[in-house]
């Protein structure tokens, strides 16, 4: 049957960039059904909740979700459970999307927008596979007054072997489809969790003889990511380390407006979103770069819809539009969101 795509555009620049991604998907002429729903601040204003039951129901029914961004300064004074950002956290939790794929590569001609030296930036073509449902974010948390009478807080870092095994497999599968190099990032010199992580990753490696596995401590990985990012192919890491390293990697490729992501569940369903937020500072001005959203749609085609050739076409069209010099202000140009989308469509 025709795949159902949930379009959750959200707040701020979310609807602006998602509209361009939708135009690109439409232009491919594939057999897809789209259904839209409110999420984030937009949903809160309409229904009193950032993730209404109807939106969650659509997300559950859909074969894939194209997400924009949530976040609205007008909602900043709301209690935490009603904040727009709770919608994306709720979706990840409800959909059990445990594998976050964040590719970072530099498009031809964008070296000058990177914070790195052009010759270093030019070599970046990596994917960070980040575990999304475990680690210190989901371990037991608490506050207390300790024996010395001091206020104390704690967050338990924990993983069980099944959680490590399933993300390790995603790491190996990803590497096997790329340049065959997997770097597992941990802190096994100090953390018990990381020693288990390393043991399990090594066990899983036996099933992937063609992938070359290396291990790196996270502090060194942070350093190598800016020193010589071209040396990385696929990185697999836990939730906390992956959060930090992937934001770091994003700046190496020119603009946060260029980076897509996928959050996958065990069955191949995914939530696809640009890594940026709702950018209230530029919302409604037609200045947002839609490339991250368009590239997220390409990831959706590849990872959830079995349309690898269409995904390749979209990525090539983005590259061609950029090569032709069309750039939004974050990349140093003056093209509008719509003009950037037009250029991608023209290249298609
Ligand atoms: P942000 O990513 O929205 O913006 C950071 C900076 O990058 C801003 O100067 C913005 O103008 C710029 N920027 C972001 N995307 C861009 C694009 N496509 N084109 C050109 N420039 C772009 O992060 P910020 O400002 O920390 O957060 C704004 C709101 O978004 C907050 O409410 C935050 O909680 C939310 N947020 C939501 C996320 C999500 O929905 N997954 C992720 C990150 C933040
Ligand atoms: Mg982050």
Automatic annotation (TrEMBL):
<feature type="binding site">
    <location>
        <position position="102"/>
    </location>
    <ligand>
        <name>substrate</name>
    </ligand>
</feature>
<comment type="subunit">
    <text>Homodimer.</text>
</comment>
<dbReference type="InterPro" id="IPR004429">
    <property type="entry name" value="Isopropylmalate_DH"/>
</dbReference>
<keyword id="KW-0560">Oxidoreductase</keyword>
<feature type="domain" description="Isopropylmalate dehydrogenase-like">
    <location>
        <begin position="4"/>
        <end position="344"/>
    </location>
</feature>
<keyword id="KW-0100">Branched-chain amino acid biosynthesis</keyword>
<comment type="pathway">
    <text>Amino-acid biosynthesis; L-leucine biosynthesis; L-leucine from 3-methyl-2-oxobutanoate: step 3/4.</text>
</comment>
<dbReference type="InterPro" id="IPR024084">
    <property type="entry name" value="IsoPropMal-DH-like_dom"/>
</dbReference>
<comment type="function">
    <text>Catalyzes the oxidation of 3-carboxy-2-hydroxy-4-methylpentanoate (3-isopropylmalate) to 3-carboxy-4-methyl-2-oxopentanoate. The product decarboxylates to 4-methyl-2 oxopentanoate.</text>
</comment>
<keyword id="KW-0464">Manganese</keyword>
<feature type="site" description="Important for catalysis">
    <location>
        <position position="137"/>
    </location>
</feature>
<feature type="site" description="Important for catalysis">
    <location>
        <position position="187"/>
    </location>
</feature>
<dbReference type="Pfam" id="PF00180">
    <property type="entry name" value="Iso_dh"/>
</dbReference>
<protein>
    <recommendedName>
        <fullName>3-isopropylmalate dehydrogenase</fullName>
        <ecNumber>1.1.1.85</ecNumber>
    </recommendedName>
</protein>
<keyword id="KW-0963">Cytoplasm</keyword>
<feature type="binding site">
    <location>
        <position position="247"/>
    </location>
    <ligand>
        <name>Mg(2+)</name>
    </ligand>
</feature>
<feature type="binding site">
    <location>
        <position position="219"/>
    </location>
    <ligand>
        <name>substrate</name>
    </ligand>
</feature>
<dbReference type="GO" id="GO:0003862">
    <property type="term" value="F:3-isopropylmalate dehydrogenase activity"/>
</dbReference>
<keyword id="KW-0460">Magnesium</keyword>
<dbReference type="InterPro" id="IPR019818">
    <property type="entry name" value="IsoCit/isopropylmalate_DH_CS"/>
</dbReference>
<feature type="binding site">
    <location>
        <position position="130"/>
    </location>
    <ligand>
        <name>substrate</name>
    </ligand>
</feature>
<keyword id="KW-0479">Metal-binding</keyword>
<keyword id="KW-0028">Amino-acid biosynthesis</keyword>
<feature type="binding site">
    <location>
        <position position="243"/>
    </location>
    <ligand>
        <name>Mg(2+)</name>
    </ligand>
</feature>
<keyword id="KW-0432">Leucine biosynthesis</keyword>
<comment type="similarity">
    <text>Belongs to the isocitrate and isopropylmalate dehydrogenases family. LeuB type 1 subfamily.</text>
</comment>
<feature type="binding site">
    <location>
        <position position="219"/>
    </location>
    <ligand>
        <name>Mg(2+)</name>
    </ligand>
</feature>
<feature type="binding site">
    <location>
        <begin position="277"/>
        <end position="289"/>
    </location>
    <ligand>
        <name>NAD(+)</name>
    </ligand>
</feature>
<keyword id="KW-0520">NAD</keyword>
<feature type="binding site">
    <location>
        <position position="92"/>
    </location>
    <ligand>
        <name>substrate</name>
    </ligand>
</feature>
């Amino acid at each position: 049957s025709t795949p159902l795509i949930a379009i959750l555009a959200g707040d701020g620049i979310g609807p602006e960039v998602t509209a361009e991604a939708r135009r690109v998907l439409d232009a491919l002429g594939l057999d897809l059904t789209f259904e839209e729903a409110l999420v984030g601040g937009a949903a809160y204003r309409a229904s009193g909740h950032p993730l209404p039951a109807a939106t969650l129901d659509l997300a559950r029914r859909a074969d894939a979700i194209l997400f924009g961004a949530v976040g609205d300064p007008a909602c900043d004074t709301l209690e935490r459970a009603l904040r727009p950002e709770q919608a994306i956290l709720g979706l990840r939790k409800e959909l059990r999307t445990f594998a976050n794929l964040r590719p970072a590569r530099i498009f031809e001609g964008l070296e000058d927008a990177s914070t790195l030296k052009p010759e270093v930036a030019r070599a970046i073509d990596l994917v960070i596979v980040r575990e999304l449902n475990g680690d210190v974010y989901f371990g037991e948390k608490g506050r207390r007054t300790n024996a010395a009478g001091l206020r104390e807080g704690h967050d338990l870092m924990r993983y069980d072997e099944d959680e490590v095994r399933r993300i390790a497999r995603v790491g190996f599968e990803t590497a096997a489809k790329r340049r065959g190099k997997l770097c597992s990032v941990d802190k096994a010199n100090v953390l018990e969790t990381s020693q288990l992580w390393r043991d399990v990753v090594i066990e899983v490696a036996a099933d992937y003889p063609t992938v070359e596995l290396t291990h790196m401590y996270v502090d060194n990985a942070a350093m190598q990511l800016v020193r010589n990012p071209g040396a990385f192919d696929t990185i697999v890491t836990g939730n906390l380390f992956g959060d930090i390293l992937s934001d770091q990697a994003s700046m190496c490729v020119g603009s946060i407006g260029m980076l897509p992501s996928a959050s996958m569940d065990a069955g191949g369903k995914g939530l696809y979103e640009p890594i940026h937020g709702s950018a209230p500072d530029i919302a409604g001005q037609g200045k947002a770069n839609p490339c991250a959203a368009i590239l997220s749609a390409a990831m959706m085609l590849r990872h959830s819809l079995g349309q690898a050739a269409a995904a390749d076409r979209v990525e090539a069209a983005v590259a061609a539009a950029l090569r032709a010099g069309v750039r939004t202000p974050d990349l140093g140009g003056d093209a509008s969101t719509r003009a950037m989308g037009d250029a991608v469509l023209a290249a298609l």
